[in-house]
Write a structure and sequence with these properties.
The protein is α+β, with helices and mostly antiparallel strands. It has 2 domains: 118 residues, Thrombin, subunit H (Beta Barrel), CATH 2.40.10.10; 98 residues, Trypsin-like serine proteases (Thrombin, subunit H, Beta Barrel), CATH 2.40.10. The protein contains 3 helices and 14 strands. The longest helix has 17 residues. It starts with a helix and ends with a helix. The chain binds arginine. The site of arginine (ARG) has 13 residues, from strand 13.
Length: 252
């Protein structure tokens, strides 16, 4: 009995700390890029739902993936899978199912604020290569790498081959100004794009933005793709890493 109530209390504490724990019991490209032809980014993974490609992600532990909350919110954990060590959609790679999808209580579906999720894998990938997180804010103008299988143009299709681009970070002030009347650019978001030329797009969501060799952002949302007026919006890891560390400490 004692054991049982202790477990219940623990579950409640975890619930208030994490927000949503979608477990087995309960329970969600790049424009102007170049093709990745060798396995240069071994930490990049794909998230599939019922076998179909949905989003990108990154390995932050050999048993944990970082992605966007909006990539997992609508799906049951049982039907999600992680595909690692592959750069082509035709290749399944190393496949794992997911034990828990951890979404922060701050995540807002409507505004995409705090768009981050930690996925704990059913079993570790022994050969996994992990990416370190960028824990400080990235300077405006920094050129960052974004990789993904997303659309190569606004109303396009996903790209079979993984694509890569480098995009400069845009100041939050400038980004807020561009998105006025459309959506809030909060302190948990950062923006980047090379206006009209290089950008992320549908399908790139959840994938990593790497600045100075560390993961600084997660592909989140944007108005169209590759437009001159609108940069893409990324989750700012320096602002949400508290949640990430906490989730990893408890579950990974
Ligand atoms: N929300 C999109 C997805 O789910 C990614 C958006 C990336 N940026 C853009 N400008 N559309 O894949």
């Amino acid at each position: 009995m004692c054991q049982f109530s202790r477990q219940l209390v623990l579950q409640l504490i975890l619930y208030f700390a994490i927000g949503h724990i979608y477990g087995k019991q309960v329970f969600k490209s790049i424009v102007g890029g170049g093709a990745v032809i060798q396995q240069k980014y071994p930490y990049y993974v794909r998230l599939h739902y019922r076998g179909e490609f949905k989003c990108g992600g990154s390995l932050v532990r050999n048993n944990a993936v970082l992605t966007a909350a909006h990539c997992v919110e609508d799906f049951s954990v049982e039907e999600l899978s992680i595909h690692a060590d592959t750069i082509n959609l035709d290749d399944n790679g190393v496949v794992r199912t997911i034990k828990y999808a951890l979404v922060p209580k701050e995540y807002d579906k409507e505004t995409k604020n705090y768009d981050v999720a930690v996925l704990i894998l059913s079993s570790a990938i022994p050969s996994a290569s992990v990416i370190t997180l960028h824990k400080t804010a990235v300077a405006v103008g920094t050129s960052c790498l974004v990789i993904g299988h997303g659309y190569t143009k606004e109303n396009g299709v996903v790209s079979n081959q993984l694509q890569e681009i480098h995009v400069p970070v845009v100041s939050r002030k400038v980004c807020q100004h561009k998105y006025r009347g459309i959506g809030a650019i909060t302190q948990y978001m950062m923006c980047a794009s090379e206006p009209g030329r290089k950008d992320s797009c549908s399908g790139d969501s959840g994938g990593p933005m790497i600045c100075n060799g560390k993961q600084a952002g997660i592909v989140s949302w944007g108005m169209g793709c590759g437009r001159v007026e609108y940069p893409s919006v990324y989750t700012d890891i320096s602002k949400v890493h508290g949640f990430i560390e906490h989730a990893l400490k408890l579950y990974a």
